[in-house]
Amino acid sequence: MSKDDLHPSPDAAMAAHFGALSLVMLNDSDLRHAWRVNFLANFFTGPIYRQLDDRFALTRPEFVILYCLSNAEGLVARDICLVTGLPKNSISRAVGDLLGKGLIARRTDASDKRAKLLALTEAGRAMLAETIPEFDRRQQAMRQALSEAEKAEFDRLILKIVYAMPEWVQTT
Fold first, then answer.
1. How far separated are the first and last CA of the chain, in Å rounded?
2. Which of 37, 128, 156, 157 gets the most CB atoms within 10 Å of its CB?
């Protein structure tokens, strides 16, 4: 990618905001490709999760659980660990906290008495209704640098990498 494809003076803007080392790490380091993904993820998620914690007293694992349950109710904690990569102890602690806040409910699975199925409560749905727009605004701001064609290409490429994960990610 040429610098002409970017905003004017991207190096100066990056160095001013994130320090000169960011340019080395993003452009010249051996791990620049992975570093770029992490850089984006850290600066996307860090501020938004701090905001959720400050404004709603909601931690990252708690939000992740609520969001997962909004997409598929009746999950067990292990399902959430598998889809997020978060450790079991973090998810277990967050489940307990969400139960205490009344944002989720837990019931025993009729077919497997050991399994504890999780579901959103009305309060949990209301919390998501307040928090999702924050993520959406941030997502739109992040993608603003791209044209519509570039957004489509970025989505295609990132999804291709995601779908290749079974070949290179170890899950245990």
1. 37
2. 128
pLDDT (tens digit per residue) in 21-65: 888 888 889 999 999 999 999 999 999 999 999 999 999 999 999
DSSP string, the chain: --GGGSSSSHHHHHHHHH-HHHHHHHHTSTTHHHHHHHHHHHHHHHHHHHHHHHHH---HHHHHHHHHHHHSSSB-HHHHHHHH---HHHHHHHHHHHHHHTSEEEEE-SS-TT-EEEEE-HHHHHHHHHHHHHHHHHHHHHHTTS-HHHHHHHHHHHHHHHHTHHHH----
